[in-house]
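TOKENISED FOLD:
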Amino acid sequence: MSLIQAENLTKIYGKGETAVTALDHVNLSVDTGEFVAVMGPSGCGKSTLLHLLGGLDHPTEGKVIIDGQSVAELSDTKLTELRRRKIGFVFQFYNLIPVLNATENAALPITLDGANGAKAKAKGRDWLRKVGLGDRLNSRPDQLSGGQQQRVAVARALVANPTLLLADEPTGNLDSKASDEIAALLRQVANEWGRAVVMVTHDPRIAAYADRILFLKDGAIVDETRLDAQNIGNAGLVADKMKTIS
């Protein structure tokens, strides 16, 4: 069974004549260790889809099933536990705590979940080393580059050993070199560490790191492309596909 499934997922904002359908009966599934990118024009529902998959918002219709659990059937407490322990989030603007160093930021989710302080920091340091920041363990966010801050955010997202990582425009605030490094890191999260990764992006070059790309338009999935990891022309293929649906 897939790690995550969405069935007839629909989100409508407002009512009557002012109602806006952000998502329109979307069906998808993502397997463990799979890296899926979501692309489409601005306002097509990409971020709405990600928020529904992560339990950050409630669908108007349809359901999300994560690791066999229907998100809609969970109490607020159980939903909070699911988000904290099974889902990691990475956003465009890092969202690091300025007064905490890299280790403390990375350890924050399990610290808040009641883990022993020393053990939480040890795990934070371990993940920072895995994402290539072993030499910046005590640096505060203002002492790190944008790419380094996003690596801290990835470590923070993985510190609780979630099965699913959701990334909303994770390279949108980075230069091209740092963007490629973060995309390659997300590829590693799926390949080496066995997490399912769902990433929203507007950049064909970054989407080309994924195993599969879902193209959204007007709240619906209108196309799907599986990529050959060895094909260096994938970015061009993705860019051409975007032109046909925009």
Summary: The chain has one domain: 32-44+75-210+220-245. Helices lie at 46-53, 76-86, 102-112, 117-130, 146-158, 176-191, 204-207, 234-245.
